[in-house]
């Protein structure tokens, strides 16, 4: 009897953890998010961090495909905040999207904003995070979107589902890290650790007991829902002695991909199956950086897969092999292998007839400083740009200015092509090409236009990967390569059959990536690099997508409690 009780209680706790408080039919799911400071002790330091509901990582949101969820965000901290629902398209409702000064003014301390999370075709794992300055470092959590019919997955029903959130951790206050690098013009201080579900693992000082442990039963299969919430790095991840099977990314299913390695961009999510099919023991899962340039935190975060059973626990489990930090092929290869399911039940809808061709260069730049007082290369200040324009956030959000016709907030002149054609990926690029311009401009798209956008990485200052994220849409990644994009030859090799459907894609260092999407979601939608330091330096822009003619093709009106500037 006691055993039965125990099993029941465990299942009940499992239900709460995984299935979440499922509402009865027709009841709208509603979450309360309270932004507040909370104490947090890790890695030999006691500090206070900004959290939602005192939790780090923050609460998981559970939903069913197509549902609308309400989140009441209360700001009880001392700073401005906005929350972005990363990968949620919000059809016709950009008001809840979240990027500060792009679609809304910040939620000020002491105020509240009720956000409507409008799900449509997303299914799988997404996440939410703060979208103002660097507060997303600790203000984020997973969004799990179940199929409409329970367990109707394109893979065998897993025994259990477990979020795996990768984080980046500074012992000092993260807003101070931000303020310091903005002031100095240099790269930000490297972080002190990476975390798995808020815990560093036991390879750090003072961290022996701070290890996330996943207990598994031999013979069972687990669905791990991974979110890369790291600030500034693409991450490698692997589990010792286990081959995993990737089944989804960015809230969309993929063809099953067996792999010993995952490379995941900040912003991206990867769902994968773990078969507990090895000798019962303890195994490390481990993650560390893939970095193609610059200074970075070279530490390794770990967690433990612990099989249930009667065996001698190894004093130190084996670490999985992770590629070299600079192994661009390993990273690009992994990402390049993702494919949509593209079958009858999960069809693709790749735009074949492109109406708008855009070509965007992604560059790191340098700006001069008075008296050479900055601490970036050549005593200048780091900056970054898209098509040579450093994105400047306005004082009033672009969406409001667009909707109400307020002039002088932004311009419509973002260029479809870079101002200059040069050898973007040459080893040496003349320094007079390193200086960007400033601007707050959008690309205007007609409703239903079909867009092909080619991102071209450049080698100004230093070439590096850029995980590019588009709000309001998913896009098909139809091609990628190293070097300069060749507009005559490269499109011949596009994958228009089963390209992956993503909302964040790493453009390889000194390479290019081509995406396609149909502009059928009216509104103002930001696009930016998901490396936090790059977006702070200005690597972003926005689209305005015009209303269509029919009633169901127009932006919905704003909610009454929209924060004001
Ligand atoms: C952090 O604070 C707690 C509670 O006050 C204390 O027990 C712990 O030793 C402190 N840890 C460090 C690393 O200072
Ligand atoms: C894991 O794999 C290694 C070889 O890659 C092997 O030496 C080791 O015994 C395996 N560990 C277990 C617990 O099976
Ligand atoms: C990480 O960097 C430190 C300092 O540069 C160096 O001493 C250490 O060997 C590096 N560790 C790894 C695993 O590369
Ligand atoms: C565990 O295995 C050991 C050695 O094989 C055995 O002596 C012990 O009785 C086992 N314990 C249980 C709970 O099965
Ligand atoms: C990558 O790092 C390894 C080991 O540090 C080094 O031998 C190799 O030259 C580097 N490769 C590139 C492409 O920089
Ligand atoms: C990358 O993929 C190609 C072809 O798919 C393969 O030939 C190559 O060995 C892979 N490289 C790495 C580093 O995995
Ligand atoms: C492609 O788009 C053009 C311009 O909108 C249109 O005239 C043409 O009919 C379209 N072709 C197909 C195959 O849809
Ligand atoms: C561009 O630069 C690369 C790297 O130095 C070089 O291999 C390539 O030949 C250059 N392309 C042209 C058209 O000059
Ligand atoms: C960017 O614009 C600046 C200012 O007009 C110019 O000096 C620079 O050459 C441009 N760089 C590129 C790569 O277009
Ligand atoms: C762009 O703005 C920065 C300061 O934000 C300034 O240092 C730089 O000179 C400006 N660039 C141009 C081309 O005006
Ligand atoms: C937009 O495209 C959809 C699907 O292709 C079509 O049903 C709809 O009529 C189009 N709307 C407009 C305004 O062109
Ligand atoms: C908070 O947001 C308001 C409204 O945009 C702005 O006036 C204020 O300066 C912001 N405060 C800080 C500290 O950024
Ligand atoms: Cu970037």
TrEMBL record:
Is Signal found in the keyword set?
yes
The Gene Ontology biological process terms listed for this entry are: lignin catabolic process
Query: PROSITE patterns recorded for this chain?
Result: MULTICOPPER_OXIDASE1, MULTICOPPER_OXIDASE2
Q: What does this protein do?
A: Lignin degradation and detoxification of lignin-derived products.
Q: Which ranges carry the Plastocyanin-like domain?
A: 40-149, 161-310, 414-548
**Co-factor remark:** Binds 4 Cu cations per monomer.
Q: Does the keyword Oxidoreductase apply?
A: yes
Q: What GO cellular component term, any one, is given?
A: apoplast
Organism of this sequence: Olea europaea subsp. europaea
Q: Name one GO molecular function term.
A: hydroquinone:oxygen oxidoreductase activity
Q: Which reactions fall under this protein's catalytic activity?
A: 4 hydroquinone + O2 = 4 benzosemiquinone + 2 H2O
Which keywords does this chain's UniProt record carry? Apoplast, Copper, Glycoprotein, Lignin degradation, Metal-binding, Oxidoreductase, Repeat, Secreted, Signal
Location in or out of the cell: Secreted, Extracellular space, Apoplast
Q: Which family does it belong to?
A: Belongs to the multicopper oxidase family.
What EC number(s) are associated with this protein in UniProt?
1.10.3.2
The primary location reported for this protein is secreted
Return the InterPro entries for the record: Cu-oxidase-like_N, Cu-oxidase_2nd, Cu-oxidase_C, Cu-oxidase_fam, Cu_oxidase_CS, Cu_oxidase_Cu_BS, Cupredoxin, CuRO_1_LCC
Q: What is this protein called?
A: Laccase
- What highest taxon heads this organism's lineage? Eukaryota
């Amino acid at each position: 009897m006691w055993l039965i009780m125990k099993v029941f209680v465990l299942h009940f706790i499992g239900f709460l953890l995984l299935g979440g408080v499922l509402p009865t039919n027709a009841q709208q799911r509603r979450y309360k998010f309270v932004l507040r400071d909370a104490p947090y002790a890790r890695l030999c330091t006691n500090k206070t961090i900004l959290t939602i509901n005192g939790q780090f990582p923050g609460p998981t949101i559970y939903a069913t495909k197509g549902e609308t969820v309400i989140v009441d965000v209360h700001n009880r901290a001392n700073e401005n905040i906005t929350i972005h629902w990363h990968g949620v398209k919000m059809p016709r409702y950009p008001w809840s999207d979240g990027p500060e000064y792009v679609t809304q003014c910040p939620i000020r301390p002491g105020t509240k904003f009720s956000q409507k999370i409008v799900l449509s075709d997303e299914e799988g794992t997404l996440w939410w995070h703060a979208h103002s300055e660097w507060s997303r470092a600790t203000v984020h959590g997973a969004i799990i979107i179940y199929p409409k019919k329970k367990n109707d997955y394109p893979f065998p029903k897993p025994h259990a589902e477990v979020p795996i959130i990768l984080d980046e951790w500074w012992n000092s206050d993260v807003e101070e890290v931000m303020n310091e690098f903005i002031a100095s013009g240099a790269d930000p201080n490297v972080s002190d650790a990476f975390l798995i579900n808020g815990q560093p693992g036991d390879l750090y000082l003072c961290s022996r007991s701070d290890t996330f442990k996943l207990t598994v039963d031999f013979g069972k299969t687990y669905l791990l829902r991974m979110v890369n919430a790291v600030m500034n790095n693409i991450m490698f991840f692997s589990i010792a002695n286990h081959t995993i099977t990737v089944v989804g990314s960015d809230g969309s299913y993929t063809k099953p991909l067996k792999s010993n390695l995952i490379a995941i961009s900040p912003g991206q999510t990867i769902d994968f199956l773990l078969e507990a099919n090895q000798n019962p023991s303890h195994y490390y899962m481990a993650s560390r950086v893939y970095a193609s340039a610059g200074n970075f935190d070279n530490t390794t975060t770990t967690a433990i897969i612990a099989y249930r059973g009667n065996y001698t626990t190894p004093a130190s489990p084996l670490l999985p092999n992770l590629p070299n930090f600079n192994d661009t092929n390993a990273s690009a290869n992994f990402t390049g292998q993702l494919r949509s399911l593209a079958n009858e039940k999960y069809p693709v809808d790749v735009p074949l007839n492109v109406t708008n061709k855009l070509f965007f260069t992604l560059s790191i730049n340098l700006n001069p400083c008075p008296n050479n007082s900055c601490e970036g290369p050549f005593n200048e200040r780091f900056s970054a740009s898209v098509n040579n324009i450093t994105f400047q956030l306005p004082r009033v959000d672009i969406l409001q200015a667009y909707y109400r016709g307020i002039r002088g907030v932004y311009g419509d002149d973002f260029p479809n092509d870079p101002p200059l054609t040069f050898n973007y990926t040459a080893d040496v690029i003349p320094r007079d090409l390193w200086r960007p311009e400033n601007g707050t401009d959008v690309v205007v798209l007609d409703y239903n236009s079909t867009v092909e956008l080619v991102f071209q990485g450049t080698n100004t200052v230093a070439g590096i990967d850029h995980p590019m994220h588009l709000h309001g849409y998913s896009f098909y990644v139809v091609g990628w390569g190293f070097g300069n994009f060749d507009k005559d030859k490269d499109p011949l090799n596009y994958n228009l059959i089963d390209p992956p459907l993503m909302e964040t894609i790493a453009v390889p260092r000194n390479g290019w990536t081509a995406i396609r999407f149909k502009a059928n979601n009216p509104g103002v939608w930001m696009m930016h690099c998901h490396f936090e330091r790059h977006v702070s330096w200005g690597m972003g822009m926005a689209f305005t997508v015009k209303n269509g003619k029919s009633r169901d093709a127009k932006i919905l009106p704003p909610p009454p409690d929209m924060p004001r500037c």
